[in-house]
Amino acid sequence: MIIVGDWLLSSGQYQTLLESSLVTVQILLYSFVLGIVLSLVVGVGRLSEHEWVRGAALAFVEFARGISSIILLFIVAIAAPILLGIPQASLILLATIALGINMGGYGAEIIRGAIQSVPKGQTEASISLNLSPMQQLRHVVLPQAMRVILPPMGNLTIEILKGTALVSLVGVTDIMQSARNIRQEQLADQVGTLPILYLNVLVLYFILAQVVNALFKFWEWRVNKSFMGGPALTRDELPPDVLHAGAGVGG
Amino acid sequence: MSTTQPPVVEREVEEYRPHRKWFRRPDIMGPVLVLLAVYGVLVGFVEQENFFRTRMEAPGGLVRFDWMWFFHLIPLMLKGLLVTIKATLLGFAVAVVLGFFLALGRRSKVLVLRWPTIAVIEFVRSTPVLVQLFFWLSLERAVPGVDLGPITLLAVGLGIHYATYCSEAYRAGINSVDQGQWEAATALNLGPVTTWVRVVVPQAVPNVLPALGNFLVAAFKDAPMGFVVGVHGLLFFADQVSSETFRVTEPYLIAGVGFLLASLPAAWAVRKLEKRIAYERI
User: Fold this and answer.
1) B 64-83 near A (Cβ less than 8 A)
2) What is the ipTM of this complex?
């Protein structure tokens, strides 16, 4: 007979899990930021005019996409501090760097593809408007690329969320680590079984993934809405400088 | 008219005939046979090492990095790498087959079949492989009379995880088969099995091959996680050597290098396949 209570943990244990999920979310957030920065820099670098910039960006992408995130994590968190002689770096920071590099490799390809999907006329028009390459990227190309970037970037973020489960292996107290602590409690009290505990952890990760998914869906909706033209402004609603500029701006 | 006809030029029969049966085409059968041979050798003959013991004395604690020792670790690393590759291939064999049935279940018209399949796919896809491996390990230990062994356990874990990815690829491939093909199959009075085997699958599967290849590379990247269920693979090698010799830089770095040596050619081959299939389809 299946009793619902058998499938649940005690409320105190849920509280432990939720508190440690804050660490997971924290790592996710940091590595997301690092990953976005890396993927923007490398993704733009892959389309650079200079050959050496393109080569370096390609090497980074191949490295980051080729290596396993778990091995990269062990290299960055365990081997690198000793190799470079860095004393006592924060484990969360190191784990973030490893996951961020991993995300940067995939994100760079997404951003490169999205930039290439923007019609060439847009770039040509912004050159003829005398925009600097930076302005061109910031105001013309990226806003249009956003619609192409967001869906795969949401999937990538969920992949990174899944990757954060690895950080418990190098000693960060995230959801997995606290699950192991809960198991110690359970063994002491002689209640609960391990499969049920891990099933609950899986459900927690599933919920987190759905939250990330919903956030990205909302963002996509916002971006798509900004692309849809609203109703034309009436004469009263137009800002005064536009209204008084007159018709013959271009001469 | 009695004018001399120009001599009939014997036209060269075109060597390349892409419409031959697939098993008569050397460009398809060559790679397939090589792949099968490699697969057979790996799965049949690779056994996992119990201990990764170095013969050379490890350098002292003050040395940050020692090249000689780094190179000395290569043979041991390769043994670990082969075990990881073997587990990946076994797991992916599970994924390819199970993924197809998941895709069929997701397309099914029976609600009782479709909704649970969708739920399972979404759940497995958005949860970490690591936790799933822990779950399967604990389940194996909890159920009496089941003893899979670490490599099989890793293969099952990876296989089920990547089956959900593969099912999405298959679904896209099946959806890309033109509606007219289904109608034609109905018009020819083909049964459902014949329709699937002779009409739909031959058109759907080539389209999804590159996606499957990408998932194979992705599964390979997750395979070192078998460390946590006791597979003596690449990460286990690095972990054991470092705990025996108290040196962490060389074992982990050589593991990373070895991994790249295997995964970069694989990714490159998948990209070649992708280009080739895109070329043949045009």
Assistant:
1) 64-65
2) 0.84
